[in-house]
Automatic annotation (TrEMBL):
Signal peptide: none annotated. InterPro entries: NTF2-like_dom_sf (IPR032710), SnoaL-like (IPR037401). SUPFAM superfamilies: NTF2-like (SSF54427). This is SnoaL-like domain-containing protein. Coiled coil: none annotated. Residues 10-119 form the SnoaL-like domain. It comes from the Bacteria.
């Protein structure tokens, strides 16, 4: 396992454990985060504090959440992972999903690295 895979594994472990400090351990201060759904960016954040705030808010949405890495591909300074995502909602959502509903989604995350730090993270569902 190379260092990028270890860093990404640490991020995913932190995500699954609701541990924001572990998630951001290898993030650059100027991290760029994008969430892409149906081919469109629906959330973009710049900076570690903005990402941390969003990650801490998101904890309130789920009783369980788990990303399972199914594949890893390295391309230049980027590493792309495919993930199986599972979550159980902690509250009702405006889109009609209810507390206790289970989510199962397949997606991918693209991590861009500079000097062993993650400078960009793009989640695609």
């Amino acid at each position: 396992m190379n260092s990028r895979e270890q860093i990404i594994g640490n991020y995913v472990e932190g995500y699954n454990q609701f541990d924001v400090d572990k998630m951001v351990l290898h993030f650059a201060e100027n991290i760029l985060f994008e969430n892409v759904s149906n081919g469109e960016i629906n959330l973009a954040l710049t900076g570690l504090s903005a990402f941390r705030e969003q990650a801490e808010r998101a904890i309130a949405y789920f009783t369980v959440r788990r990303q399972t890495i199914t594949s890893i591909k390295h391309i230049g300074n980027q590493t792309e992972i495919d993930v199986d995502y599972y979550a159980v909602l902690k509250a009702d959502f405006p889109n009609g999903l209810k507390k206790g509903d289970e989510l199962r989604v397949q997606g991918k995350s693209v991590f861009t690295f500079l000097n062993e730090k993650i400078i960009k993270l793009t989640d695609v569902a």
